[in-house]
Write a structure and sequence with these properties.
Layout: H1 8-14, H2 39-52, E1 58-63, H3 65-76, E2 81-87, H4 109-116, H5 123-128, H6 135-152, H7 161-164, E3 172-177, H8 185-194, E4 198-203, H9 210-213, H10 215-226
Parallel strand pairs: 1-2, 2-3, 3-4
């Protein structure tokens, strides 16, 4: 949700594409969340942002919550999306793989690392979910969870999304960690079922945070797809 730093792979992408990495309303220092109640509101926020930036047809992508928002955007304005990539995105519901309640685990960093990373003791897991997080980082994390709670309190999916995905006729990449314990690969399979031109790619030995845990594989897959 929060584009709190310019990661090296953004720089890699920016050498080939014009890259926009917005922070969602309510995350970090981004305001405007008083006007956001639902994921649909987020989608409308972004169409207005893209209009303001003068963007027409775009390559659209997102990770986790951002992937869900991207999917909701694409079903509403499919003519605006040249290509779509989604990584570890919720938004659908799979009966056999119900999403866990991350809110119950958020105060236990070890549980959060186990939920988000295939290797919870790895360098990136310890860096992203730090034991010595400062007050500002903790406040930002709690703020993000408050935003997620507001967006997902009723249900962590859109019951109408599956029946609308057929509207997305552009090429679509579904990129999932093979060991995602938060949004399991079954959700990638569900998206592939409903999206007409979707390809599902699983990253081995990887959890929910592919952009951190397997950065090289993540960046390579997205870059090749976007060319």
């Amino acid at each position: 949700g929060e584009a709190f730093r310019w990661f090296p792979f953004y720089q890699t992408w920016s050498k080939q594409f014009t890259v926009y990495v917005p922070t969602h309303p309510g995350f970090g220092k981004s305001g405007g969340f008083d006007q956001i109640d639902t994921i649909e509101d987020m989608a409308f926020h972004y169409v207005e942002l893209f209009d303001a930036l003068g963007l027409g047809e775009i390559i659209l992508g997102g990770v986790s919550l951002g992937g869900w928002i991207a999917a909701e955007f694409a079903v509403r304005w499919p003519e605006r999306v040249k290509k779509l990539w989604l990584s570890a995105a919720p938004g659908l519901w799979v009966d056999d793989e119900p999403l866990p309640d991350l809110f119950r685990e958020m105060t236990d960093r070890d549980k959060v690392r186990k939920r988000l990373f295939h290797d919870p003791n790895g360098y990136m897991a310890k860096l992203v979910i730090a034991d010595d997080a400062n007050e500002e980082q903790m406040l930002s994390a709690y703020q993000s969870m408050a935003v997620l709670a507001r967006l997902m309190w009723e249900r962590p999916y859109d019951p109408k999304l599956a029946e609308r995905l057929h509207r997305v006729q552009c090429p679509t990449l579904l990129l999932w960690g093979a060991h995602d314990r938060l949004v399991p690969p079954a959700y990638g399979e569900a998206y592939r079922k409903y999206l007409p031109q979707a390809e599902l790619k699983l990253i081995p030995d990887c959890g929910h945070m592919a952009m951190f845990e397997k950065e090289a594989e993540f960046v390579d897959a997205v870059t090749r797809f976007c060319r």
